[in-house]
Amino acid sequence: MYIIKHGDVIMEYHDDKPYPSQLILGFIKGIPLHVVFAVDNEQNRGIVVTTYIPDPRLWSDDFKSRRSK
Q1: What's the whole-number mean pLDDT along residues 31-51?
Q2: Residue 31: which H helix or E strand, with range?
Q3: What are the sequence ranges of the domains in the chain?
Q4: Long-range interactions of 61-69: CB distance < 8 A, separation 24+
Q5: DSSP code of 54?
């Protein structure tokens, strides 16, 4: 919940189905976490789709953008 309220939205997926979602970056005890969070406006609820520790080999040093291949 802390990351959803205080984290940085680093990507928005307006066309996600069934609800638009966003990728949020936050840190817990210095560990980076990505949370994919969707919003169902009709039911007035939020949904945590997934949470994971981003792989530093795939993400930039600040964990805000993907590294190019």
Answers
A1: 96
A2: strand 31-40
A3: 2-52
A4: 63/25, 63/32, 63/34, 64/8, 64/10, 64/25, 65/10
A5: P
Q: What is the pLDDT of residue 69?
A: 72
Read off the pTM. 0.91
In angstroms, rounded to a whole number, what is the distance separating the alpha carbons of residues 4 and 29? 16
> Whose structure tokens read 């080999």?
57
- Cβ-proximal residues to 33 (8 Å cutoff; 6+ apart), any chain: 3, 25, 26, 27, 51, 52, 53, 54
* Cα gap 45→31, rounded to integer Å: 27
- Closest by CA to 4, choosing from 60, 52, 46, 56, is 46
Tokens of 33: 């976490």
